[in-house]
Amino acid sequence: MKEVITGNTAAAISAKLSKVDYIPAYPITPQTEIVQLLSKWINEGNMDAMFTMLESEHSMITAAGAASLAGSRVFTATSSQGLLYGFEMLYNAAGWRAPFVLVNVSRALASPITLEPDHNDVLSARDSGLIQIHTETCQEVLDSIIMAYRIAEDSRVRLPTIVNLDGFYLSFTREPVDVPEQSAIDDFLPEFKPAEGYLSAKNPMSIAVAVLSSSAYSYFKYQMHLASLNALKVHEEVSAEFEKRFGRRYDAVEEYMLSDVDYVVVMTNSFTTMGKAAINMLRAEGKKVGLLKIRLVRPFPKEEVAKKLAGKKGVAVIDQNVSVGSGGILYNEISSALYHQLERPKVVVSFVGGLGGKRITPSEFRHVFNITENAAAEGKAPINSILLFTDRDWSTVKGMLKVAGKGDVVG
User: Fold this and answer.
1) What is the pTM of this model?
2) Least C-beta-crowded within 10 Å: which of 61, 130, 381, 406?
3) CA neighbor of 106 nearest in space, from 1, 8, 187
4) Which tens digit of pLDDT belongs to each residue from 106-130?
């Protein structure tokens, strides 16, 4: 059934369709609507689950991990500073091998404060051990959460999973979404079967006890690493089955007009839609350029990325984040994936755009292409990331700083 709904509503519907047992929650903009809807449905008797409001995101993620280990299918959600508040428990939950799903509605991190999105919140968790799936559309939000349970609960993986959607650009944007029937989801997503020896009053045990031997710690951490790598294969299998049942396919990396191109723009999340429109514009001007969307960020699909970008003249990576003092985060991931490729692109250029939700304009996409094309002709890419920030933007910022009495600014 087609419905015109927001990304937040799609996330809530997906949790309901997945028949989650337990929802530990704590509100934060722009995620709050998700848990509000779930609480409403439970109170009205339209959803059979337990909803608990905790005192913080730290407690929320702790409860999510513990309930998952006790045999419940668990859903929770947060954003931005909330994800950071519970950061310690991300590592614990992954170490516990607790397969719950956490939706992160991306919002830029303070300071300065903003409610608009970029990806420094979710990418800060990339080393925690959680699987990360990043979405472009409201439809992809709904489908990805259902798929995330299949991946997280698979015996080869058993890791918590983040499904990321952009605040405001998806969370409060209405799009047509095909909502599957409950019976179809039940056939695709069977009842959660916890690992052998899960927590219960009749079966007390200790989990993640102190390890005095460094060799034992190394073993358990590497076991998590291998489990995360297993998710590449599991994601592929789940995607194929999802396509067979519902007609929509989601690969770890997805190409747009990539056949017979010399240049590729690499992006992720909702701004990929802007990128696709820009590709259409540039193709109409005769430019041989396509787009590669990164959907699975952890585990990072190195082989697929290297295969898709092999032999290109130039690759432009547009990061909606910045690792201060280094540059774009995904740029480094892409560069690492290409390092052992015999047919590497001639140049890989790093761009940073969309910070704090700033739209990337068609002229800025054209600027990205021109810089990448020139760098390929010269055989040398700029060392540092290039900020997509127009003269008009700079004039506005200088005016704001002048009003605030901040004086001169280095720029």
Assistant:
1) 0.93
2) 406
3) 8
4) 999 999 999 999 999 999 999 999 9
Residues 62 and 174 grouped into a single domain: yes
- Reported as a single tens digit per residue, the pLDDT across 167-223 is 999 999 999 999 999 999 999 999 998 876 566 656 666 666 666 666 788 888 999
Give the CB-side neighbour count of residue 233, counting CA atoms within 13 A: 8
Contact 301, 100 (CB under 8 A): no
The string of pLDDT tens digits covering residues 296-350 is 999 999 999 999 999 999 999 999 999 999 999 999 999 999 998 778 999 999 9
Going by C-beta distance under 8 Å and a sequence separation of 6 or more, which residues neighbour residue 245?
A: 184, 187, 188
Residues 10 and 158 in one domain: yes
- C-alpha distance from residue 311 to each of 206, 331, 337, 345, 364 (Å): 52, 17, 14, 5, 25
Terminal-to-terminal C-alpha distance of the chain: 51
Bridge partners (DSSP) of residue 317 are 266, 350
* CA-derived radius of gyration, the chain: 22
Closest CA to 53 of 116, 42, 125, 44: 42
- 276: number of CA atoms within 13 Å, CB side? 14
Structural domain that includes position 279: 253-396
Kindly report whether the peptide bond that precedes residue 299 is cis, defined as omega within 30 degrees of 0. Answer: yes
